[in-house]
Amino acid sequence: ATLQVLAEALAAGEPVRLAGFGGFTRVERPAGSARNPRTGQSVHVPASRTVRFKPGEALKSLLNG
Asked: Model's pTM, two decimal places?
């Protein structure tokens, strides 16, 4: 149930913050071009949305001792 609420909030464009853990935000990626490393051919990459996570201070301090 928690993951469903988190996904719905991000789909609506709302940031989600979990106290002591970190926050999730939706990020818009613009369209562009990329290169296929095997063939060297240029390909079009369409615009998309993704999620970015920023850890909170409590999580950072726990990971770094």
From this structure: 0.71
